[in-house]
Every structure is written in structure tokens, then in C-alpha cells.
Amino acid sequence: MSTTAPDLSENKPWTKRAVRYDEPAVIPRPKRTAGVQTYIPAWAKGTGITMKAFFVNFKERLLGQKRDPVLENYDGGLTTLEYPEEKRPYPERFRGLHRLTIRDDGSMRCVACLCCSTACPAQCIHIVPGEYPEGDARRGYEKYPTEFVIDELRCIFCGFCVEACPCDAIRMDTGMHPVPYDSREQFIYRRDLMMSFTDRDGERHSDNTRHEPGDPTHPGVTRKHDKH
Amino acid sequence: MTLADLLLTIVKIAIILGFILNFAGLSVWADRRQSALVQHRVGPNRAVVKVPSNPLRLVIAGAAVAIGAPFGFFFWNAAPGLEQARMTTGLEIAILVGWFWMLLLSNHVRKHGADNGFDELVSRVPPRNYFYGGLAAHLLVLPLVRALPPQVWATQWAPGICGTLAFVMIAGAGFYAASKLPDGKTELRLAGTLHAAADTVKAFMKEDLAPKRADLLLYSLAPIISMTTALVTVAVVPFGSSLCFKDTNLDGMLDLHELGGLANVIDASGACPANYNTVPFMIADIDMGLLFVFAIAGTGIIGAALAGWASDSKPALLGGLRATSQMVSYEVALGLAIVGMLMICGTVNLREIVEWQGQNTWGIFAQPLAFFLFFAAAVAETKRIPFDLPEGESELGAGYFIEYSGGKWLLFMVGEYAEFVFSSALIVTLFFGGYHLPFLHGDGLHIAFGDSVLYELKMSHLSVTIIHFLAFSTKTIGFVFFHLFIRWTLPRFRYDQLMKLGWTKLLPLTLVNIMVTGAVMLAIDAGGPQVSKAMDLVADITQGILALGGLLGTVAFVTYLLEPPKRQRIVVSTSAKLADAAGGVKPSRMQA
Questions:
Q1: Taking CB atoms and an 8 Å limit, are A80 and B42 in contact across chains?
Q2: What are residue B185's DSSP bridge partners?
Q3: Domain contains A211
Q4: pTM of the prediction?
């Protein structure tokens, strides 16, 4: 009946002592009193528990006193979130579908450095870099992705692409989950689609402002330095 | 049998079948949905019909007018001896509708906002105060009406005005409810009960599969047998007190033109006066009532056995065998458990058993042990938890109806629930006074202990009959729920435990019960008139306990329902913060 407590004094940090029992713990058989044998007290108690749970929830449903499934769900009771109609807001740091951020002039921030596709453990990002056309101020400084494709079926939503991006060009703050489609092709998200996404509040504003070459705030190397 | 008899029988069959089938279907749903509630889940409640609001408004207002109109119309007719009853009825109904409607309105306005000044005014009082006020008014009206001098209530207009008040309240509540419907379309959910209808339609549209080597005839026959037997047994259960129609041409038969001549008042025993035709509120008033029930219920075994045999499947066969042996075993205990009751009442006619209980005391007081034995055996007989071994999922899948699908499966399912509604009705009939309510006799309310009369109110035959029917339905529904609570609570027995319980516990106990009953009956008979008079007083006291208990229980239940909920709002996660900023989780329409 008795069990010895495991001796913790000899515990080594790298191994855990196996718990030894001198004899197996046996739950004693309940005494065969009249109450146990007739089954009625236990039955009455159980039915009471059932009825209590039922009437509490029945009352809530009947009188429309439904508790808020997100805010008031810590006291037990009926806390079902009736999903398609009711939704739990995703937490702030939820990593949802990717979006490509844009500059003030509406062009994309991405410079096609391939950091994200390199960092991607699922290898779901495909980028084809291209040069800006002749005469564009950015030509020679930056490239841009002529093609930017993410296979959302392969994506594991780890967020490494966001971490890897040096330009804050890719984010996962849309607050959207991938929508179920009926073909694989529909899960291939392309550049323009991802550029059209906003953050969960519907905004494109970023505190991380972009300093274009030629701006006085631009900290990097400009064309004027090429003679040095 | 005259044409009128035939017509009434058809009407009775329609009423009773409608009750049983609807309630069987509903309890299939209730079993799923409410058992989910027990586990703190919502359960199936999504079925919804979008009804255009305007026709619905018409239906609600029309129904209210139709329900209220008899009060406003017929209460102006002279009814000697019933003026007090009519005044009381009119006032009580007006009060009931009044507080209930204000309560709902207050609750609604508090949640959804006021539309006008009246809403605003009503919602200032918390909903439960309406209930307390209404309750006080209900109780006040009873002595008040009696205290009025006879020259007030004996005039024709006093009952008429009270009836009109009831009509105005009912119609007004209906019109106001209709005005509260949203414009355009109303989403009709009926508290989720539409799910039962949707499930029925779905089941009949599903493919009807049959095993390749099944015996098709028996395979198709089995669900029909088990469904029919469950429904046929209801024929001998009285759903209300007998109706009395005046025999104008004195031929001792009910003719069509006599259907309008419902008696105004009958005497306390519920028996019809001379020159009146008696129409019992049951489909077949036969003297072998209970024997018929057992005979037909015994046939139900064949349904399960056939289903098990004809399905050409091992789990089905084992399930069928289990069902058969279980039902045969428990039929013995079931039959013997009520012998004591039959000895006391001296009849097997269910109507007479109910009448005995109305004049003396409810069966549960006369035969408390028999009630428990009968109840346990009835649960086993209907193959329900904790005795649902024939369909033990862990070893047999669904047991004898494992191979059934679609409509045939539905027949089994509804048949099982119909059987179980019927067994509730039978228990109510045998042990809970059938359609009787304490102190309500054929001629009205008569509260008396022994010879001391406390309160008396004459009531018309029609209103007593309606109350009796409602009482029976309510008791049956209550018992169905009691069945369900047991089903949601208990785990399944082992098969040997089941057999042991039936043969070595229930059966000997029923025999002991019969012997004790016989001895007590002999002792009472030998005791002479004093003892029987004392027994009458005890019977009255049990009625008093029931009435008081029922009243207090109802009040406690409603008070509990109206208690404002306690809520603790905890905003910790960012998810909760976002939900809080949005003002809580609000349901929105489903989007693709």
C-alpha cells in the first residue's frame, strides 16, 4: 500500500532517477455498504451534477445571457465560440498571410536581395530580380522583383522571411489566415496580390520610413561618392 | 360506432400521434443538443429558416387574436354558476400575459435597446420584478373575486369584462411582439428545434443501403414493426379527462349534431351526468388497457430481433440477441412491478387507474417501491442508458441497427424515442396521477383536507379538460427530461450486471412488493371506517404536499431563471484586448 518517495538527494543534474515503488499502489476496494450496493446515492449525486450543469447553461441559452466567449470564459460554463459567425481576434503578433509593403510613391519596397528566399526553411519564396528601367533614379542602386511568388501551401508561417528582410519589405501582419481554396494554383500568391494587402487595420503606413537615394536623410552611399 | 365517434377518434389519433411523434423527434434533437449543454457545449442549433417578416407578423398577431377571442366573446354569454370562475380565469390570464410579456419586453429592451418611450418605461423595472409582481397579483385575485358581493359578479357583464380584458392583453401582446420583428426577413430558429426537422428531411433524402445478402423483406419490416408498436401502445393511455356531450335525442349514441353540446358543468367525480354521452380522451377505452400495453410492447421485441437477424452482420445479430433477451427479462419485472397498483385500484383499465388516483392519491405515494422498480425496468425495456447494451458502441457499433441507413434508420431512432415518450406517459399515468392535478376535480378547484374546506372555485367542464390535457403533457415532458438526465449521467452496465439486476434484484423485490401491498390492504380493510377515513386524510395531505411543492418548485425555478448572471471579465491576452476594444465578440454573417 505504501509507496516510497523517490530519493532526490542523489539526483544528478544530467539524469533523473527512476521512481521506484516497493509495491504497486492499490486503490482500496470501496466498502460494500448499502449505499454503494444500491447504487442510488451515487446515482442521485451524479444526476444532480448533470442537472446543475444543464440548468445553468439552459438558462443562459434561454434568456440570451450568452457569455462573451473570449472575455468571460474563465469561470467555466458554456464558453463555446460559434466559429464562422463569432471569431476570436488573432493576437497582435499573429503571423498571417504575407504582404509586400510599398513606398510612399506606391512602388514596392522590395529590392530583390533574395534574403527572404534564402532564409526560408520551406523554400516557398521564388523571386526573379530585375533592373529598373533606364532613366529611373533607382537604377544602379537597387533592383526590384519582376516576379515575387509565395506558395502559401508550402509556407510554414515561421516568420523567418520577415526577420531576414533588410528593407522591411515583407510582413506577416495582415491578420488573415490562408483561405481554403479548391486548387493548388490558387495558393500561389503573386507580387501584385501581396502588394494589395494591408495590415489588419487596413493601413499601409509604416513607422519605419524609407530614405530614398538623393534624399538629404539618406544615410548610404550615393552616386556623388563614386569618384572616391 | 357512429360517424361522430369515428370523427372524434380520428381527431384524437391526430392529437395523440402528433404529440408523440413531434415530441419523439424533438427529444432526438434535445438528447443531442441538451446533452451538449450538460458538457458545456452548444450542440446542434444552426438550422435556420429565413421567413419574410410581414407574413410572420400576420401569423403572430392572428394567432394572438384567435387565442384571445374566445375569452372576449364567449364570456359575455350567460353561464349560471360559473361567473366567479370566468372572472377569475379572465383576470388570471390577463395578469399572466401581462407580467410575462412585460418581462420579455424588459429583457429584450435591456439587450437590444428601446424603440420608443414605452419600451424605455418598461425596461426601467428589472425583469424579475415583473414576475414577483405578477405572482402577487395572481394570488391576490383569488380571494378578491370571492370577496366581491354577489350582485357584482352575478351580473352578466362582470365575467364579460374580465374576459375582454384577457382578450385585450393577449391580442395586444401579440401585436406588440409582431411590431418588434425586424424589417425584411426574420431568421426563425425556434430555439434550435428546427434542427430536428432538418435532420428528418436529411435522413429521408439519404441513400437507403441494404447489405447484399440481407433478407430484404424482414430487413425492411423490422424498423416498421419497432416504430408501429411504440405508437400503437399509446392508444390506451388517457390524455385528459372524459368529455361529456349532451344526448339530445336520447338514443344513447353520439351523433354528429350533438358534438356542439359539450356539458357546461359536471360533478366532482368527473363522471358525466345522466343523458350525456361520455367520450374518453383516449383512442381506445378498453378494459384490458395495461394487458394491451404489455402485449404490444412485447411485440416490439420482434422488431429488434428481426433487425439483428435480417441484417446479415455479426454485430447486428449479437445486438439483436442482446436486445431480445434483455427485453424479455425485464418484461417480467415490468409486469410484476405494477401488480400492487392493480390490486389497489382493482382494474387494469388505465382510465380507471387514473380516476382512482384522482379520487385518492397519486400512485407514487401508494406504491413508492413499485415506482422505482417499474422505472428501472422501463428504462431497461426501452434499451436506454445505463441498459443500452444492445447498441454498445465499444463492442457492437450500433448493435441491431448497425446496417440501417437513411429513412429506415430514422424509423428505428424515432421509434426508440417514441417508445421512451410512451414509457414516460405510462409512468405518469400509473404513478403520477395521469392528467390529474392536486385538488382539481371535475367541477373545479376544491382545496380540502378531510372535511375542512379551504378554498373552492367552480370551473367549467371545458376549462377543466384543457387543464387536464396540459397537465398530462407537462408531466410527460418533465418525465422525458428526467429520463434524459439519467441518460446523460450514468455509464453503461456490463451485460452480466444487467441480467443479475433484472433477475436477482428487481424480480424478487417486485414479489415482495406484491406481498406487502396485499398485507397492508388486508390490514386497512380490517381496520374499519376510522382507518379508511384517516387514509383519506393522509391522501389529502399528500395532495397538499404535491400542490405546495409544485407551486414552490415553479416559483423557485422561475426565480432562479431570472437571476441576473454573474460575469467576470478578464482581459489578459492581446486577443482579448482586441476583442475588448471592439466591444466584445459580436456575431457576424458567415463569409466565403
A1: yes
A2: B52
A3: no
A4: 0.82
